[in-house]
Amino acid sequence: MSKIKLQQPVIHTPSFKRYGVQQSYLAGELKKLSLHCFPVTDDYVLDAWYYYTNLKGWAKILPDLVSHSNLYKSNVFDCEDYALKAQVECALRYGLNSFRMCIGNMPQGMHGFNIFPYGDETGIQGFMLFEPNDGFDWAGNAFKIGDNGYVPMDVFITSRR
Q1: What span, in angstroms and rounded, lies between the C-alpha atoms of 39 and 27?
Q2: 108 lies in a domain?
Q3: pLDDT, tens digit, for every residue of 97-129?
Q4: Which of 57, 75, 123, 144 could cysteine-pair with 16, CB 3.0–4.6 Å?
C-alpha cells in the first residue's frame, strides 16, 4: 500500500507592522468608495476584526500571492478563484485578512482580482488593487483603483444592512 506524504512549503515570513480595525470600519471605508460589500446580513459577520499593514509591509508580501497562469481552467479555476486563493494564502501565511477578493471591470470585461487597505495605527489611509494571475503584465504589483483599467464594484466582506 502506498503512502501519501504531505509537506507544507517552507516559507520565510518577512517582518512587517500589523494593524487592526473592526469590520464595520473597514466596510464603511469601502462604502465611501461606492463599493458594494457582500454578503449583506444582520445575522453574522465573516470576521469581527480585519488586519492590514502599510505599503512597505505589503511590498514584502504581494510577490508571494501571485499564482502561475497555467492553473487557469475555464469555468473551473479562473479569475475569481485566483483572487480567492490569494486572499486565503494572505490570511493563512501572514495573518492579514483584509486582502479581499473583489469583482469589477477591466478592459476585457468583468473580472475577479484583489483589493486591500494600507495604513498605520491611526487607521486606513487608502486602498490598492492586485492582480494575482501572473498571466497579466501588472501581476504581483499593487496599483491604484482605475489603473490598468481595473474598477472594483463588489468586495467579499460582510456588510450590515
Answers
A1: 11
A2: yes
A3: 999 999 999 999 999 999 999 999 999 999 999
A4: 57
DSSP 5: -
In a 3-state reduction of DSSP, which class is residue 112? strand
Number of domains in the chain: 1
Q: Is residue 62 part of a domain?
A: yes
The CATH number linked to 89 is: 3.30.460.70
Q: Is 37 a domain residue?
A: yes
DSSP run (H or E) holding 118: strand 109-120
Summarised one tens digit per residue, pLDDT across range 55-67 is: 999 999 999 999 9
By the 8 A CB rule, do 95 and 18 touch?
A: yes
Distance CA 3, CA 104 (A): 44
The pTM (predicted TM-score) of the whole model is: 0.89
Neighbouring residues of 67: CB distance < 8 A, sequence distance ≥ 6? 82, 85, 86, 132, 133, 134
Q: Quick: pLDDT tens for 33-47.
A: 999 999 888 788 889
